[in-house]
Amino acid sequence: MYAAAGSDLGALPWASLKPFPLLVEWLDGQGAGASGAALVVGSGLGDDAEELARRGFAVTAFDLSPTAIERTRERFPESTVDYRVATLLDLPTYWNGRFDLVVEIRTLQSLPVGDRAAGAAAIAGTVAPGGLLWLFALGRDAHQQGETRPWPVTHEELTVLEAAGLKWETRREDLLDADLYDVRGTLRR
Protein backbone atom coordinates (compact mmCIF):
# COMPACT_ATOMS: atom_id res chain seq x y z
CA MET A 1 0.00 0.00 0.00
CA TYR A 2 2.92 2.36 0.67
CA ALA A 3 4.27 1.78 -2.84
CA ALA A 4 0.83 2.23 -4.41
CA ALA A 5 0.32 5.53 -2.54
CA GLY A 6 3.52 6.94 -4.00
CA SER A 7 3.91 10.53 -2.83
CA ASP A 8 0.21 10.77 -1.82
CA LEU A 9 0.80 9.79 1.80
CA GLY A 10 -2.70 10.95 2.69
CA ALA A 11 -4.02 7.98 0.69
CA LEU A 12 -2.90 5.67 3.50
CA PRO A 13 -5.85 5.33 5.89
CA TRP A 14 -3.64 4.95 8.98
CA ALA A 15 -1.18 7.75 8.13
CA SER A 16 -2.22 10.90 9.99
CA LEU A 17 1.23 12.46 9.41
CA LYS A 18 1.46 13.53 13.06
CA PRO A 19 2.30 11.72 16.29
CA PHE A 20 -0.45 9.57 17.80
CA PRO A 21 -2.38 11.95 20.10
CA LEU A 22 -2.75 9.52 23.03
CA LEU A 23 1.00 8.83 22.99
CA VAL A 24 1.70 12.58 23.01
CA GLU A 25 -0.74 13.01 25.91
CA TRP A 26 1.01 10.25 27.86
CA LEU A 27 4.47 11.68 27.12
CA ASP A 28 3.30 15.13 28.23
CA GLY A 29 2.15 13.61 31.51
CA GLN A 30 5.59 12.09 32.10
CA GLY A 31 7.21 15.52 32.44
CA ALA A 32 10.35 16.86 30.85
CA GLY A 33 13.68 15.12 30.60
CA ALA A 34 12.94 11.96 28.65
CA SER A 35 15.94 9.77 28.08
CA GLY A 36 16.97 6.26 27.31
CA ALA A 37 16.61 3.95 24.37
CA ALA A 38 13.20 3.72 22.71
CA LEU A 39 11.81 1.36 20.08
CA VAL A 40 8.81 2.08 17.87
CA VAL A 41 7.15 -1.09 16.57
CA GLY A 42 5.63 -0.81 13.09
CA SER A 43 6.80 2.78 12.72
CA GLY A 44 4.91 3.53 9.49
CA LEU A 45 5.88 7.02 8.33
CA GLY A 46 7.88 7.89 11.46
CA ASP A 47 5.80 10.51 13.26
CA ASP A 48 5.83 8.73 16.64
CA ALA A 49 9.53 7.96 16.39
CA GLU A 50 10.32 11.58 15.57
CA GLU A 51 8.26 12.77 18.55
CA LEU A 52 10.22 10.49 20.88
CA ALA A 53 13.53 11.71 19.42
CA ARG A 54 12.40 15.32 19.82
CA ARG A 55 11.82 14.59 23.50
CA GLY A 56 15.32 13.21 24.03
CA PHE A 57 15.09 9.46 23.47
CA ALA A 58 17.65 7.56 21.40
CA VAL A 59 15.13 5.99 19.03
CA THR A 60 15.17 2.90 16.88
CA ALA A 61 12.09 2.38 14.73
CA PHE A 62 11.20 -0.41 12.36
CA ASP A 63 8.58 -1.34 9.83
CA LEU A 64 8.02 -4.37 7.65
CA SER A 65 7.66 -2.17 4.57
CA PRO A 66 10.87 -1.00 2.87
CA THR A 67 8.80 1.67 1.12
CA ALA A 68 7.52 3.00 4.46
CA ILE A 69 11.09 3.31 5.73
CA GLU A 70 12.18 4.98 2.48
CA ARG A 71 9.31 7.51 2.67
CA THR A 72 10.11 8.17 6.32
CA ARG A 73 13.74 8.94 5.52
CA GLU A 74 12.56 11.29 2.76
CA ARG A 75 10.20 13.07 5.18
CA PHE A 76 12.82 13.43 7.91
CA PRO A 77 16.22 13.70 6.16
CA GLU A 78 17.96 15.17 9.24
CA SER A 79 16.51 12.63 11.66
CA THR A 80 18.53 11.08 14.46
CA VAL A 81 16.20 8.04 14.51
CA ASP A 82 17.70 4.72 13.44
CA TYR A 83 15.05 3.53 10.97
CA ARG A 84 15.17 -0.15 10.01
CA VAL A 85 13.30 -2.58 7.82
CA ALA A 86 12.52 -5.51 10.10
CA THR A 87 9.94 -8.21 10.66
CA LEU A 88 8.33 -8.43 14.09
CA LEU A 89 8.56 -12.21 14.08
CA ASP A 90 12.30 -12.11 13.30
CA LEU A 91 13.81 -9.17 15.20
CA PRO A 92 17.57 -8.76 15.64
CA THR A 93 18.69 -10.67 18.74
CA TYR A 94 20.70 -7.69 20.00
CA TRP A 95 17.37 -5.88 20.54
CA ASN A 96 16.46 -8.36 23.29
CA GLY A 97 16.04 -6.52 26.60
CA ARG A 98 17.57 -3.35 25.14
CA PHE A 99 14.87 -0.66 25.20
CA ASP A 100 13.74 1.52 28.11
CA LEU A 101 10.53 2.40 26.26
CA VAL A 102 8.81 0.36 23.58
CA VAL A 103 5.84 1.88 21.73
CA GLU A 104 3.30 -0.50 20.16
CA ILE A 105 0.32 1.08 18.39
CA ARG A 106 -2.04 -1.30 16.57
CA THR A 107 0.64 -3.65 15.26
CA LEU A 108 -0.54 -6.78 17.09
CA GLN A 109 -4.06 -6.34 15.76
CA SER A 110 -2.66 -6.19 12.22
CA LEU A 111 -1.12 -9.64 12.55
CA PRO A 112 -2.98 -12.79 11.58
CA VAL A 113 -4.47 -14.33 14.72
CA GLY A 114 -2.10 -17.31 14.52
CA ASP A 115 0.95 -15.01 14.73
CA ARG A 116 -0.21 -12.87 17.65
CA ALA A 117 1.36 -14.84 20.49
CA ALA A 118 4.76 -14.83 18.78
CA GLY A 119 4.38 -11.13 17.95
CA ALA A 120 3.45 -10.20 21.53
CA ALA A 121 6.37 -12.25 22.87
CA ALA A 122 8.75 -10.55 20.43
CA ILE A 123 7.58 -7.10 21.51
CA ALA A 124 7.85 -7.99 25.20
CA GLY A 125 11.33 -9.38 24.61
CA THR A 126 12.66 -5.98 23.55
CA VAL A 127 11.75 -4.28 26.86
CA ALA A 128 14.76 -3.74 29.14
CA PRO A 129 14.71 -4.63 32.85
CA GLY A 130 12.73 -1.82 34.48
CA GLY A 131 11.59 -0.64 31.04
CA LEU A 132 8.08 0.15 29.82
CA LEU A 133 5.87 -0.97 26.98
CA TRP A 134 3.30 1.67 25.93
CA LEU A 135 0.50 -0.14 24.13
CA PHE A 136 -2.60 0.90 22.19
CA ALA A 137 -4.83 -1.60 20.39
CA LEU A 138 -8.38 -2.20 19.33
CA GLY A 139 -9.88 -4.94 21.52
CA ARG A 140 -12.72 -7.39 21.08
CA ASP A 141 -14.48 -10.15 22.93
CA ALA A 142 -13.00 -13.56 22.23
CA HIS A 143 -16.10 -14.77 20.37
CA GLN A 144 -16.03 -11.87 17.89
CA GLN A 145 -13.92 -12.14 14.74
CA GLY A 146 -14.10 -9.77 11.81
CA GLU A 147 -13.70 -10.79 8.21
CA THR A 148 -10.82 -8.46 7.34
CA ARG A 149 -7.82 -6.80 8.94
CA PRO A 150 -7.27 -5.35 11.36
CA TRP A 151 -8.56 -8.03 13.68
CA PRO A 152 -8.92 -6.58 17.19
CA VAL A 153 -7.02 -8.33 19.98
CA THR A 154 -8.57 -10.27 22.84
CA HIS A 155 -7.75 -10.24 26.56
CA GLU A 156 -6.30 -13.72 26.14
CA GLU A 157 -3.93 -12.58 23.39
CA LEU A 158 -2.61 -9.78 25.60
CA THR A 159 -1.83 -12.21 28.44
CA VAL A 160 1.23 -13.27 26.41
CA LEU A 161 2.79 -9.94 27.42
CA GLU A 162 2.36 -10.85 31.09
CA ALA A 163 3.64 -14.37 30.52
CA ALA A 164 6.75 -12.79 28.95
CA GLY A 165 7.51 -10.95 32.20
CA LEU A 166 5.65 -7.65 31.84
CA LYS A 167 3.18 -6.34 34.42
CA TRP A 168 0.39 -3.83 33.76
CA GLU A 169 1.03 -0.52 35.52
CA THR A 170 -1.87 1.28 33.89
CA ARG A 171 -4.66 -0.10 31.77
CA ARG A 172 -7.73 1.55 30.34
CA GLU A 173 -10.44 0.14 28.13
CA ASP A 174 -12.83 2.52 26.40
CA LEU A 175 -15.95 0.89 24.98
CA LEU A 176 -16.61 1.78 21.34
CA ASP A 177 -19.70 -0.40 20.89
CA ALA A 178 -21.09 -3.66 22.25
CA ASP A 179 -18.17 -5.72 20.94
CA LEU A 180 -15.20 -3.38 20.43
CA TYR A 181 -13.08 -1.27 22.75
CA ASP A 182 -9.78 0.59 22.77
CA VAL A 183 -7.11 -0.87 25.04
CA ARG A 184 -4.24 1.33 26.18
CA GLY A 185 -1.76 1.24 28.98
CA THR A 186 1.75 0.66 30.14
CA LEU A 187 3.44 -2.54 31.16
CA ARG A 188 6.75 -2.68 33.04
CA ARG A 189 9.40 -5.41 33.07
Give an overview in words.
26% of the residues lie in helices and 29% in strands. Strand 1, helix 3 (47-54) and strand 2 form a beta-alpha-beta unit. Strands 3-2-1-4-5-7-6 form a 7-stranded mixed sheet, sandwiched between helices. Helix 5 runs parallel beside helix 6 (155-163). With 189 residues, it is an alpha/beta fold. It has helices spanning 2-5, 21-29, 47-54, 66-75, 116-125, 155-163, and strands spanning 37-41, 58-63, 82-85, 99-105, 127-140, 167-175, 180-188. It is built from 6 helices and 7 strands, in the order ααβαβαββαβαββ.
Tell me briefly what this model is.
The protein is α/β, with parallel strands linked by helices and about 190 residues long. Helix content is about 25%, strand content about 30%.
Structure keywords:
seven-stranded mixed beta sheet; alpha/beta; 189 residues
Low-confidence segments: none
Q: Report Rg.
A: 16 Å
* N-C termini distance: 35 Å
Per DSSP, the total helix count is: 6
- Spell out the helices and strands N to C: HHEHEHEEHEHEE
Strand content: 25-35%
- Structural class, judged by helices and strands? alpha/beta
Largest sheet: 7 strands, mixed
Physical arrangement of strands within the biggest beta sheet: 3-2-1-4-5-7-6
Helical coverage, percent range: 25-40%
* Count of distinct strands: 7
Report the mean per-residue pLDDT as an integer.
88
Shape: globular
